[in-house]
């Protein structure tokens, strides 16, 4: 099964954190040049910040999704009380409470 975007972002974040720790603090056993280490750290910090940004965006999706449902409920609130309106409201409210 393909991992979710949240799982991918968490894995990237964890990987970056581990690698940042390794390259920042392991200066004796890692045999890499200072320039390589600097480039690696720059890239890892960027990736870590990017994954954090998208994890925050992912958290907002549920809120935005529910806001759109609420807009639809308000949009249809002016309809006469009919079976159609009750069907719309029931379906939207069911999903809203997930």
How would you briefly describe this protein structure?
This protein is mainly alpha-helical and 98 residues long.
Task: Summarize the amount of helix as a percent range.
Answer: over 70%
Overall spatial form:
rod-shaped
pLDDT average, as an integer? 93
Through-space gap between termini: 23 Å
Runs with pLDDT <50, length 5+? none
Structural class estimated from helices and strands: mainly alpha
Q: How many helical stretches? A: 3
What is the β-strand count? 0
Strand content: under 5%
The helix/strand series, from N terminus to C terminus, equals: HHH
The major sheet is characterized as:
none
The whole-angstrom Rg is 23 Å
Describe the model.
The chain has helices at 5-25, 34-75, 83-96. It has 98 residues and is an all-alpha fold. Helix 1 (5-25) packs antiparallel against helix 2 and helix 2 runs antiparallel to helix 3 (83-96). The longest helix is centred in the middle third of the chain and has 42 residues, at 34-75. It starts with a helix and ends with a helix. The model has no long low-confidence stretch (mean pLDDT 93).
From the structure above, extract its key features.
single chain; 98 residues; mainly alpha; 3 helices; 79% helix; rod-shaped
Outline the secondary-structure elements.
Layout: H1 5-25, H2 34-75, H3 83-96
């Amino acid at each position: 099964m393909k991992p979710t975007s949240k799982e991918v972002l968490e894995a990237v974040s964890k990987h970056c954190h581990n690698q940042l720790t390794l390259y920042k603090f392991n200066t004796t056993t890692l045999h890499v040049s200072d320039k390589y280490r600097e480039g690696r750290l720059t890239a890892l910090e960027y990736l870590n910040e990017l994954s954090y940004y998208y994890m925050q965006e992912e958290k907002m999706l549920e809120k935005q999704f529910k806001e759109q449902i609420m807009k639809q409920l308000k949009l249809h609130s002016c309809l006469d009380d009919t079976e159609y309106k009750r069907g719309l409201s029931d379906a939207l409210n069911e999903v809203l409470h997930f």
